[in-house]
Amino acid sequence: LYSPLTDLSSARVDLLTALVSFERCFEVLDAPLPIADADDAVELFNPRGILEFEDVWFRYPAASTVSIASLEGEGSDALSAEPSAWILRGVSFRTTPGQITALVGPTGAGKTTLSSLVPRLYDVTSGVVRVDGHDVRDVTLASLTNAIGVVTQDPHLFHDSIVANLRYARPGATEDEIVSACRAARIHNTIAGLPDGYDTVVGERGYRMSGGEKQRLAIARVLLKNPAIVILDEATAHLDSETEALVQQALAEALEGRASLVIAHRLSTIKAADEILVLDRGKIVERGDHGDLLAGGGVYAELYETQFAPGAADEAAS
Ligand SMILES: Nc1ncnc2c1ncn2[C@@H]1O[C@H](COP(=O)(O)OP(=O)(O)OP(=O)(O)O)[C@@H](O)[C@H]1O
Ligand SMILES: [Mg+2]
Q1: Domain residue ranges of the chain, discontinuous segments joined by +
Q2: I need a surface site. Which of 19, 36, 74, 199 has the fewest CB within 10 A?
Q3: Which of 210, 257, 261 is nearest to 238 (CA)?
Q4: In angstroms, rounded to a whole number, what is the distance separating the alpha carbons of residues 304 and 306?
């Protein structure tokens, strides 16, 4: 008898919370977007996926120019008015379609930051990032986004069914296309084994996918999207060797025929790379293949000893 009443009183709290979030939505929407289409932006048409960095320097903009005050909570007036120190310092490289470029380096070297400049989560401070010869600032954000598939370290899933999470990569995808992408990404059997199959709700209050499952689902999204460029930030968390093997197979499918930039944490991925770039404190300090770099006895050789070598961190690589 009491419970409807208590429900009613908590409904008020829910409503208030909802109103607060609603207000914040507008605040986010109203915030000046630093990244927008140029007035004369062109469509990136049928991209081949040649990615090029030319003397790229980057520092994060001052927090006060990009953040939304109320999301920062108490003491928000302490937001820094200064940009960060230099995070990338004169980075130049070029990828080729069908090739895997691996980016390695110590934690904090700037690997994730570098990858975020390709889909324009931020713009370079100086220098140029080009896709197919176009400065990314000269093409429409929509066509740029279409050209790039991203798999992050911890892929985000919406609180919705698995099939809805996949369709979001290609709204018009048929059931057959979805299933074949999931087979190629080595996640179909896992999904088919769930009581509700593809209708299983995932996320916060739904079925919680493991790290390896989420990465494979994100890879299935990339296959559905079929972009010219793939950016993969490998999970740092250790996967058991069976999952590791499945993720490797899924990756081989996803990277085939595309230009890929892989922030690599696993020896098997690094060995598969056509070129390895070693980033240290924002600079590319070495480049080459695994054998050359190891023989060089520099930063890479040291990283190999501490991170990548079989046994260094329970690495279950080939
Ligand atoms: N939004 C941000 N604002 C200011 N500084 C940032 C921001 N994000 C990252 N940094 C700083 O930039 C530097 C590079 O960070 P980044 O995440 O690119 O390193 P990383 O090479 O990807 O490291 P890891 O291997 O741990 O993932 C770090 O010093 C970090 O503190
Ligand atoms: Mg990172």
Answers
A1: 1-30, 51-308
A2: 74
A3: 210
A4: 6
Helix, strand, coil in percent for the chain, rounding step 5: 40, 20, 40
Ligand 1 pocket test, candidate residues 71, 72, 91, 111, most atoms within 8 A of CB: 111
Query: For 124-179, how does the pLDDT look when each residue is reduced to its tens digit (9 = 90+)?
Result: 999 999 999 999 999 999 999 999 999 988 888 888 999 999 998 898 999 999 99
Show Cβ contacts of residue 271 under 8 Å, excluding neighbours closer than 6 positions: 290, 317, 318
Task: Compute the distance between CA of residue 155 and CA of residue 177 in angstroms, rounded to an integer.
Answer: 21
Q: pLDDT tens for residues 177-235?
A: 999 999 998 999 999 999 899 999 998 778 888 888 888 899 999 999 999 999 998 87
Does domain 51-308 bear CATH number 3.40.50.300? yes
Q: What is the pLDDT of residues 85-131, one digit of tens each?
A: 999 999 999 998 888 999 999 999 999 999 999 999 999 999 999 99
- Ligand 2 mean position to 125 CA, how many Å? 20
Residue 153 alpha carbon to ligand 2 centre in Å = 8
Q: For residue 11, what pLDDT is reported?
A: 57
17 confidence band (pLDDT: 50, 70, 90): low
Measured in angstroms, how far is the CA atom of residue 272 from the centroid of ligand 1? Answer: 26
- Residue 165 backbone phi and psi in degrees, to 5: -65, -30
Residue 32, C-beta contacts closer than 8 angstroms, at least 6 positions apart:
none
What residue ranges line ligand 1, CB within 6 angstroms? 60, 84, 87, 105, 107-113
